Amino acid sequence: MNIIVVKNAEQGAKEAFALFEKAHQNGAKVFGLATGGTPVSLYGLIRESALSFEDCVSINLDEYVGLSKDNAHSYDAYMREHLFNAKPFKQSFLPDGLASEETEVARYERVLQENPIDFQLLGLGTNAHIGFNEPGTPFTQRTHKVALTQATITANKRYFEKEEDVPRYAYSMGLQSIMDAKEIVLMAYGEKKANAIFDMIEGPVTEDVPASILQTHGNVTVIIDEAAAALLSSENQ
Ligand code: PGA
After folding, report:
1. What is the DSSP letter of 37?
2. What are the start-end ranges of the E strands in 46-127?
3. 3-state class percentages of the chain: helix first, strand second, coil last, to nearest 5
């Protein structure tokens, strides 16, 4: 893993933008995108840039089950607000939160097979999830329906009026679907991510730590601030 430690999230967004831009210049056509608080400033830099995605495809990691794309809490709405309204892609794929599990899992796997991901952006859960792949998810998992853990529900309730409003299920690309990406860039900021960062980078590769599978991928860059890097041994800081 290539590890970049920055002062703060703003610097991290600049590093991630540079990698995004380089991939785009080198001909990447399929971008795997993430939601959450972490990529917000990166998307701001992309919106302000001269990059055009009109001949590119985007594929998002996940979507809440039960929310329509018009629901303000859906990841579809998030992506339109933070990126797609300003920078439309030729085609943008997100799981359909209203579709049945059987239909949606098959459709998304077809999308991934027809559009192999060149560049995958990831955030990191406090429990080391990537996408909505919670601890215990098999490394061989492809797109699936996930029951969110309490840690994830707690972490995401800040986006909702109350905890009961957080959906309990999501559709998510699986760990194997993520590992198929040619290049992966993961960002994580803040003290609350320090344990997950330590386990992901220096712990054993285990299904208890979903992100630890990234140790076995040949082209991963991890961008973290000093707070998230705090538990790493000195050669990784
Ligand atoms: P966050 O979420 O960017 O809102 O911290 C990351 C994640 O859960 O993957």
Report:
1. S
2. 57-60, 62-64, 91-93, 119-122
3. 40, 20, 45
Ligand 1 atom at shortest distance from the alpha carbon of 35: 3
Per residue in 114-123, pLDDT (tens digit) is 999 999 999 9
Which neighbouring-strand residues pair with 222?
A: 3, 186
Can you tell me the distance from the alpha carbon of 86 to that of 212, in angstroms, rounded to the nearest whole number? 34
What is the tens place of the pLDDT at every residue in 22-48? 999 999 999 999 999 999 999 999 999
Per-residue pLDDT, averaged over 140-153, amounts to 95
- Residues in contact with ligand 1 by the CB-under-6-Å rule are 36-38, 123-125
Select from 73, 78, 124, 209 the residue to mutate for testing ligand 1; criterion: most ligand atoms less than 8 Å from CB. 124
Residue nearest to atom 8 of ligand 1 (CA): 125
- Tell whether pTM > 0.70: yes
